[in-house]
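S.,

As promised, the LLP run. Input:
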Amino acid sequence: MSGFSEFVYHDNELYVESVPLKQIAEEFGTPCYVYSRSALTKAYLEFDSAFSGRDHLICYAVKANSNIAILNLLARLGSGFDIVSGGELLRVIKAGGDPKKIVFSGVGKNIDEMRLALEANILCFNVESEAELNTLNQTAKDMGKIAPVSLRVNPNVDAKTHPYISTGLKENKFGIPANEAERIYQSAHQYAHIRFTGLDCHIGSQLTELEPFMQASSKMLNLLDTLQSQGLAIEHLDLGGGLGIRYTNETPPSIKDYVSALCASTQQVKQRLLIEPGRSLVGNSGILLTRIEYLKHTPARNFAIVDAAMNDLMRPALYDAYHEILPVARNNEEIKNYQVVGPVCETGDFLGHDRKLGLINGDLLAIMSTGAYGMSMSSNYNTRPRAAEIMVDKNTIHIIRQRETIDQLIATERILS
Ligand code: LLP
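Predicted complex:
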C-alpha cells in the first residue's frame, strides 16, 4: 500500500487511524471522502522540519483540496497558501489563514479578484504576463495601493509528467521566458503601483524525480543573480509545487529529500524560500469510500458497479490515473479480474481497470490516495450531489462537509415565466 500508515488493516478490516471505515460508511453513507488528520499533520511537519532553520514559507496549493477544515488545520500549523481564484482567497480567510502568507498564482486573474487580494493585503501576486502586470498596476492605482509582485518565469524544463499537468515548457501557457522576465523587472520604474518583491516558477505536478526541480532552480538562481547585480531588491524565491506521491509503484523522492535538495541547490540564496506543495501534503491523507451497488458479469468482463463515479473522482477519466482500490473488509471470495466503474452514463466513467479482487455485493471499497485533486475536482454531472467529507482524528470522527442535497443542487435554477 502507498503513502502513510494511517490507513491500515486490523483483523482484515481497513481502519483510518483508530476508526473502522465501515463505521463511517454506516454513519454517514457513501460515497464519502475520508481524511486522516495525523497523515496531514505529519506531511506538513516533514516539509517544515526539512528546512531546518532556513527562512521559508510553505504555501499550500489550495486547489489540491480546498475544504476549510483542511485549510484551518494547515493554518494552525503555520502554513501559508497558494491560491488561484477569489473564491480560494475567501476560503483561506474564512479558514483563519493569514493573508500575509498568501501568494496568488494563475494566468487569468480578473480585476475583481485582484481587488479582493489587494484589499486583503496578500503577500504576493505571481504574475504571468505583461498584460496582467498592466492590469494589476492599474487596479492597484485605482485603489491607491502598491501590489507586491513576483514574475512567474517559465524555465523551459521538462517535468517528465503527464502532459496535462506539465507547465514549465516553453510551449505551455504558463509563465514568462527568463529573458523577457529580466527585461520586465528592469522596467520596474514604469509601474508606479507595482513593487517587485519576488521571483517565481512552477514546472508541473506529480514529478517523481529531483532532476527537473534542480534544472529549474539553477535557472532561477542565474536570473536572481542578474537581478541582484542590477540592484533589484528581491525578498523571496518561490520554487512552486509539484512533488509527486506514490499511487502505486512510483518512487518519488521523500518530502525531506526534496526539501533538502532545494535548500542545497539554493545555498547561496539569502532570500526567503517559498514552495507551493499541494498533492504531497494531502494526497495520501485521504481516501474515497464507496459501496458496491451491483456485481455484473458479462461474457467479456466482470464489473463492480460502485456508488462513486467520475463526478466524484475525475482523475482516472481525465488522466488515466491509477488509484489503488482496497476492500474495506478482506474476505475469502474468489479473486476475479474486475472493472471498477461508477453509475455515470459514459464508458470513461471508471475508477480502476483490471483489478484483482474478491468481491461480494454491498461490499465497501477504498479508493486510495485521493486526498488531492479528488473532491476539489468533483462535479454534479448526471445531477449527482457531491459526496460528504469526513476528517478522522485518532478515534474522533468529524464531518467537515455535509453531503449535498438535490434541493441545494437545483436551488439556483429558474424556469421561464
Ligand atoms: N503551484 C502552482 C502554480 C500550480 O499550478 C500547482 C498545481 C501547484 C503549485 C501545486 O502542485 P502540486 O504540488 O499539487 O503538484 N489536477 C491534476 C493536478 C493539477 C496541478 C495544477 N497545478 C491532478 O489531479 O493530477
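The two ends are 56 Å apart (CA to CA). The longest helix spans residues 211-229.

- D.
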